[in-house]
Amino acid sequence: MPTQYSLSPEMAHFIEKSRSFSVDSLEIDTQRRSYSRMCQAFTPTRSAELEVKDFKLAGVSVRSYRPHRLSADQPVPCVLYLHGGGWVVGDLDSHDFLTAALAVDLNAVVIAVDYRLAPEHPFPAGLRDSLAVWHALQIQAGRLGIDPQRVAIAGDSAGGNLAAAVCLALRDAGERQPVGQALIYPGLGGADDLPSRTECFDAPLLSTADIAFYQQLYLPQGERSPYALPLDATDFRGLAPAFVAVAQFDPLRDDGVCYERALREAGVATEFDSGLGLVHGSLRGKGRVPEVDAVYWRLVAALRGFIYPQ
Predict the structure, then answer these.
(1) Taking a C-beta distance cutoff of 8 angstroms, is the pair 137, 55 a contact?
(2) Quick check: helix, strand or coil at residue 81?
(3) Is 157 annotated as catalytic?
(4) pLDDT tens digits along 41-51
């Protein structure tokens, strides 16, 4: 492990356990199986307080988590969640540890999206799936028992990229924004010369080389679009209020720093978390690493503020 990163003992143990599942192969199916095994090792038993259903919205597989204590008579708030994994790995199971917990702790419906993955389905497939589910939630809100005007969007890593892109696409189409966007260590297409790219080039669990590898699979033609790389946008006005959390030891750190600043300067209400002591992907350490628990509860507080406004 690189030695220049000041990690807590709990974080170091989390990283060591995560790395025990790593493989050297660049074969995508092998990487997906390895990622799934790793995620499963950090996924606790779901709370008995939840009703969990897998189904399709707009032809896209989703998983709904609904706390039993939610009203069945009144429409309730919802969070649309987009998982991380470099647009290449991950699925409904990989982030069950997080989506199930958020539903309980928010007392809200959480709907996770199994968007299509690269390299079989490069940009804009994942974004189109995410937008399709967003629109289906709006149209079918009554059937789903949710309030279409109290839907937030959230995602980590590549999922944070997609969440930001959904907000941009909705804004540009003149459609209603989510009540809030929560982005956790998002990859947003920041410049190669951002300080975090060199300061954290060999950071645990995600290196600068890894970023280039996954981005090339997502954007094989090297195209640039704000919907693929949200930091390429020239106008950040009119976007949903944002909670942006980064990880201190992450080459993607400054993507979130730059995006939060761009939103704030455009008049968008923001909250920023600098993720002291965190590494990329460390949300899986929830319940094991105190600094991860701290950012998790700040995420919960931010989402509560979006979907349960005062």
Answers:
(1) no
(2) strand
(3) yes
(4) 999 999 999 99
The mean pLDDT of 76-101, rounded to a whole number, is: 98
Q: Which residues of 271-300 are buried (b: 16+ CB within 10 A; e: fewer)?
A: bbbebebbbbbbbbbbeebebbeebbebbb
Known active-site residue 96: no
Active-site residue identified among 105, 250, 255, 273: 250
Quick check: is 34 catalytic?
no
Is the Cβ–Cβ distance between 153 and 165 less than 8 Å?
Answer: no
CA separation for the pair 56, 90 (Å, rounded): 18
pLDDT in tens, 130-187: 999 999 999 999 999 999 999 999 999 999 999 999 999 999 999 999 999 999 999 9
Tell me the β-bridge partners of 244. 183, 272
Confidence of residue 1 (pLDDT cuts 50, 70, 90): very low
Q: pLDDT tens for residues 16-29?
A: 999 999 998 989 99
Buried b / exposed e across 116-152, counting CB within 10 Å, b at 16+? Answer: bbbeeebbbbbbbbbbbbbebbeeebeebbbbeebbb
Element spanning 55, H or E: strand 50-57
Phi, psi (deg, nearest 5) at residue 299: -60, -45
Residue whose tokens read 């937030």: 152
Q: Which of the following is catalytic: 96, 254, 280, 282?
A: 280
CATH architecture of 25-307: 3-Layer(aba) Sandwich (3.40)
Marked catalytic residue, from 94, 130, 157, 196:
157
* CA dist., res. 158 & res. 213, Å (int): 13
Q: What region does 304 belong to: left with phi over 0, alpha with psi -120 to 50, or beta?
A: alpha
Question: Residue ranges of the domains in the chain?
Answer: 25-307
